[in-house]
Amino acid sequence: MTGPLHGVRVVDFSAMIAGPYCTRMLADLGAEVIKLEPPEGDYLRGRPPMKDGQSLYFGALNCGKQSIAIDLKHPRGAALVKELAARSEVLVENFRPGVMARLGFDWAALSAVNPGLVYCSISGYGQSGANAELPAYAPVVQAACGYDLANLGYQPHAERPLNTGIFTADYLGGVHAFGAISAALVKRANTGQGTRIDCALMDAMLGMLAYEVAEAQAPAEALRPLYQATRASDGFFIVAPITQANFEALARATGRPGWLADPRYASPAARAVAQNWEALLHELDVWAAGKTVAECESRMSSCGVPFGRYQSVGEVMASPYAAERGLFATVQAGAAEFRTPKPPFRMEGIEVGGRVPALGEHGASVLGRVLGYESVAIERLVAEGILR
């Protein structure tokens, strides 16, 4: 079975996370993704976690693609890339704005030879404006967009923004770029016209802060209720008694029918008062202190309380839920085998690539199959250091 993007060729200039995550999903849906790398390879190829000499981090973001390593600084290398872009439907890049123009691969140059090209640029702050050329890794954007200070405001005892090792801005930007490219391909199919897409990590993060953007314009009189972990004897869980029915279920599950008549908790408006909400969560802590998480889950689930136990990533990977949903695919990277998440949606034709490409592995085949180069010409490019 071929995927819904079968027949779509993608030239992938991107490196690190945001662009590769976007193009990985395009590959999962059947697109032919040709990853352009410098002769030394994508920076993430050398980043841990490593297994049998292979970066599983790189592999998770680039499985199912083809790799071609070209010296873009050489005029003949640049000419090869232009030929490839002329025979492709999509191009994705996440260089700092201005780099593609200096290389001669900007939208104006490539759309002139391929008017139907869908050209997606992913950057920190967009392709124009005062901030466009600022360095913009995900942690920097997450600080600049207001996300980190907004989250600090939800931590009553924290004195500085929280540490982070999860690059939300990169993955969110990649998801938005994937959606925009998919829409642009529909337009291309209907009209034959290409599209230039400008996707900014800053904009993606701001779009996620709907409440905070609204509250910045019309400040709330009081802090809204915050959801927090409840400690049981062997771990943590969280409940979300959002509706009145949820709260009544919580009172039944904990054996606290008096909560229903307590003026601090009896109505949604009363529970929205910060000190009342905190008092309720404290009582929940007291109730859970002598119980295991499993015991708490059994009581909550039997009464229909929205409940979640805190789990490690490894626990989720080994869970029945992950197995039932088929969340992970097994991927080969050299001699290493590992599991990687599939796209978070189910539809016919999705098949996560079974291999991670070696650096430059597909150079000869791409030039021969796509561009029609003879083997002698390809060998000459390799000998001259233009093609790895």
Level of helix content? Answer: 40-55%
How many helices? The count is 18
What is the terminal-to-terminal distance? 33 Å
**Biggest sheet, open or closed, and with what strands and sense?**
6 strands, parallel
Total of domains = 2
Count of extended strands: 13
What do these coordinates show?
The radius of gyration is 25 Å and the shape is elongated. The chain is of the alpha/beta class and 388 residues long. The two termini are 33 Å apart. Helix content is 42%, strand content 15%. Strand 12 (328-333) and strand 13 form a beta hairpin. The strands form four sheets. Strands 5-2-1-6-7-8 form a six-stranded parallel β-sheet, with helices on both faces. Strands 9-10-11 form a three-stranded antiparallel β-sheet. The protein has a two-stranded antiparallel ribbon with strand order 3-4. It has two domains: 9-210 and 322-383, Rossmann fold, CATH 3.40.50.10540; 230-309, formyl-coa transferase, domain 3, CATH 3.30.1540.10.
Question: Can you lay out the helices and strands and say which pair or pack?
Answer:
Elements: E1 9-12, H1 18-28, E2 32-37, E3 50-51, E4 54-55, H2 56-62, E5 66-69, H3 75-86, E6 90-93, H4 99-103, H5 107-113, E7 118-123, H6 138-144, H7 147-152, H8 168-191, E8 195-200, H9 201-208, H10 210-217, E9 230-232, E10 235-239, H11 244-254, H12 268-271, H13 274-288, H14 293-303, E11 307-309, H15 313-317, H16 320-325, E12 328-333, E13 336-341, H17 363-369, H18 375-383
Parallel strand pairs: 1-2, 1-6, 2-5, 6-7, 7-8
Antiparallel strand pairs: 3-4, 9-10, 10-11, 12-13
Helix pairs in contact: 1-8, 8-9, 11-14
